[in-house]
Amino acid sequence: MTSNRGIGHLVCGRRAKWLVLVLWLVVLFVAAPFAMKLTDAQDNDAASWLPGSAESTQVLEISEDFRPEQIPAVVIYARDSGLTDRDRAQIAEDVRQLKELRDHGIRGSETRGPVYDRQVDPRAAQVLVPITMDEQGWERISPAVDSIRDDVGEGGGGLAVHITGPGGTSADFAEAFEGIDSTLLFSAMVVVIVMLLITYRSLTLLVVPLIAVVCALFTSQALIYLLAEHAGLTVNGQSAGILTVLVFGAGTDYALLLVARYREELRRHEDRHEAMALALHRAGPAVLASGATVVLSMLVLLAAEMNSTSGLGPVAAIGVAVALLAMMSLFPALLVICGRWIFWPAIPHYGSPDPTERGIWARTGRRIAGRPRITWAVTALALAVCSLGLIQLRAEGISNADAFTGKPDSITGQEVSARYFPAGSGDPLVIVSDRAQAEQVGRTVAETQGVVPTSLGLPPGTKPIYEGKVLFEATMTAPADSEAAKQTVERVRDAVHGVPGADAQVGGGTAALLDMDKATTHDNVLIIPLVLLVVLLILCALLRALIAPLLLVGTVILSFAAALGLSALAFRYVFDYAGEATDFPLFVFVFLVALGIDYNIFLTTRIREEAARQGTRRGVVTGLAATGAVITSAGLVLAGTFAALGTLPMVAFAEIGFAVALGVLIDTFIVRSVLVTSLFLDVGPKVWWPHRLAREDGGAANRESVGAGVSRSGE
User: d(Cα 165, Cα 143) in Å, to the nearest integer?
Assistant: First the structure.
C-alpha cells in the first residue's frame, strides 16, 4: 500500500470504517438533543441585528436604565363614514380590558388612548399597548399580540380593527420566522432527494449522502447551541435558516464530487477500500480547498459592523466545517461499508469503461478547443451585457410594507393608520440628553422639519431622570420605515448634536434602520475585497500558480455582476419587488464567491492533474469531460437548496435565494463549462505560471491534437 493512500485508509480501511461509523453514531446521539434546542438559543432582539457602535444602539442601551425595553403594539380602529356611538363605546370597553392585561409581558396599566383623529365626528382611534422585552421577550411577542387581539376582536359591521406599530409588525415577522428551521430542512431535503435521484438514478445511493448531511446538520446545530449558551455566540433566525441551506448545499456538493471520483476508481480497482483511498487522495485536496474557501470567507464576516452579519460568519463557518468533516469521514466510510451494490442499478464494475470520455462534456470541450479565444470573448461580453441590469438594483432597504411576500394585518393597519394619524405614530424618535439642556434639546427637536411639534413627551412608566439624563419621545410626520423618516432622523441628530453640552443622542426604530444602512454600506466596501483576497490566496496555494487564480477570480466577479444584474431585472419586472435590503449585495457576493468558486476548484484541480500527464490543453478537455457531469449535478443541488429560501414569506430571503440560485446556475453552465475552459485553452501552459508546468507542460499535445480526440492514461 503506498503512503499517499494512507490518509484515505484512516477512514475507509477494513477496520477503520467501522470505527468511524461508531464515532459518528456517538456524536449524533450526544448532539441530537442539543440541536433541538437551537431555536431556544436564538437572539432576535434589536441588539443582535444593530451595529454595536451605532448611536441607535447606544440609545437602546441607555433606555434600559430608564425603563424596561418596550415595544408598542398599536390598535387602530377606523370607519370611513365616522365612528358611531356604539363604536366609541366598544373602544372604551376594549381599553378597559387592555388595561387589565398582564400576559406575555403586556403592561396593560400603561396603555395609552384612545386618541382620535379629530375632536368632532372622528373617523379613527388608536390605542398604544406597551409590551416589555426581556430575555424571552421576542419569543413572547406573538402570544402578546394574540392576547391583545382576543380582547379587541377583528372588527365587523364596517368597523375595521387592526394591530400594527412595532409590536404588530414584529409579531408578523415572528410568525414568518416560525418554523423556519423545519420549513427549510424539509424544502432542502426534497430538493436534494430529487437531484440525487436524477444524478444517480439510484434509490439506494441517495440515502447515504442524506444520512451524512443530516448528521452534519445536527452536529453543527448542537455545537452552535453550546457556543451560544456558554461562549456568547449570537444566533438569530436569519443565521439559523441560512445554516440549514449551507450545510445541505455544501455537504451534498462534496458528496457528489467524492462519489464521482470513487466511481472512477471502482472501474480501475477491484478492492473498494483501495478505490476509496485513491478517490480521497485525488479528490480530497479539491474538497478541502473548497471547504476552506467557504469557511474562511464566512469568517471574514466577523469584520462586519452589523451584528447580524458578523454573527452569521461563525455560524456558517461551523456548519460548513462540520459538513466537510462528515463528508470526508462518515460519508466515505458508509460508501465502503455498503459496497458496490449501493450504486444499483448502474453498478461500476471493475474493468468497465469510463462513460465520461465519450459524454456531452467531452464533446463540448473538443468544440471549444477549436476556437477558444472567440468563445471566451463572446461569453464574457454576454455576461457583461447581463450585468447592465445592475442599474435597476435598488439596494437601499425594504420598508415593512414591502418586506413580506403577502400582506399581513400589521401592514394593512399601518396603511389605515397613515390615513388618519401622523404616519410615524407608534414608532417614535427616542431622544436622550443631559438634564440641564433638556428643555433646549426639546425645543430643537420640536422645531425640526418632519417632527410633530406637539408630540414631545415622556413615555409612561419611564423614570423622569437617571444619572443626570432625561429621555423623551417625538412622533414623525412620515412613516417610520420610509426614506423621509430617515432624513428626519438625520436632521434631528444634526440639530441636537449642535446643542452645547447636551450630549444628546437620537434613537428609535427609524434611527436603527438608518444606522443599519450606513453599517451595511461600510461592510460592503470592507468585506467584498477581503473575501476576494481570501479566495485568491487559497487558489494560489492550491494551484501553485498566479495566472490561473487571477483568471478564476476575474470570472467569478463577472459571474456575480451578471447574476446581480439579471436578478435586479427579475425583481423589477417579474416579481414586482419594491427594492432590496442594503445587505443583499454582500450576502449574494459572499455566498456566490465562496460557493461558486467550488466548481472552478473542482475543474481546475482536475485539469492540473491531467496537465501533468498529457499537457495543459489536452488536460483542459479531459478535466472538463471528467468533472462536467458531477459539477452540473452539484450546481443544480446547490441552486435548488438556495431556491428553498423562496418558501419563506419574506422578500429579503426570497431575493437572496433567487440571486444565489441564479448565480450558481450561471457559474455551473456558463462560467465553468465555457468561460474558464476557453480561457485555459487559449492561455495554454502559461496559465500555471510561475510553476514549472508553465514550461514543461508534460510534453503536451498541441491545440490541433486536442480537437482530434481525448485520451486518458490508465493507472
Answer: 16
Would you tell me how many other CB atoms lie within 10 Å of the CB of residue 158?
11
- What would the pLDDT profile of 200-257 be if each residue is shown by its tens digit? 777 777 788 889 999 999 999 999 989 888 887 878 777 887 888 888 888 888 888 8
Query: What number of other Cβ atoms are within 10 A of residue 124's Cβ?
Result: 22
Among the listed residues 252, 245, 242, the one whose alpha carbon sits nearest the alpha carbon of residue 287: 252
Q: What pLDDT digit, counting tens, does each position of 483-509 carry?
A: 888 999 999 999 989 888 888 889 888
Classified by CATH at the fold level, domain 359-399+485-715 comes out as Multidrug efflux transporter AcrB transmembrane fold (1.20.1640)
Residues 67-119 have pLDDT tens digits of 777 788 899 999 988 889 898 999 898 889 888 888 777 877 888 888 888 88
CATH number of 1-54+180-352: 1.20.1640.10
Strand order in the sheet with 112-116: 112-116, 124-132, 70-78, 159-164, 155-156
- Domain spans, the chain: 1-54+180-352, 359-399+485-715
Q: Which helix (H) or strand (E) holds 114?
A: strand 112-116
Region of 503 on the Ramachandran plot (φ > 0 left; ψ -120 to 50 alpha; else beta): left
Strand partners, 111: none
Nearest to 544 by CA among 483, 604, 600, 494: 604
Within this chain, domains 1-54+180-352 and 359-399+485-715 share the same CATH topology: yes
DSSP 459: P
Kind plus residue range of the DSSP H or E element containing 302: none
pTM of the model: 0.81
Beta bridge partners of 76: 126, 162
Distance CA 238, CA 316 (A): 11
- Tens digits of per-residue pLDDT, 648-670? 788 888 899 899 999 999 988 89
CA-nearest of 629, 642, 637 to 673 is: 629
Longest dimension (CA), the chain: 96
CA distance 322 to 244: 12
User: Would you say 564 and 585 are in contact if contact means Cβ atoms under 8 Å apart?
Assistant: yes
Report how far apart, in Å, the C-alpha atoms of 63 and of each of 49, 58, 60, 430, 469 are.
Answer: 17, 8, 5, 9, 10
Distances (CA, A) of 139 to 67, 181, 407: 20, 15, 22
| DSSP of 395-450 | -S---HHHHBSS--HHHHHHHHHHHHS-TTTTS-EEEEEEGGGHHHHHHHHHTSTT
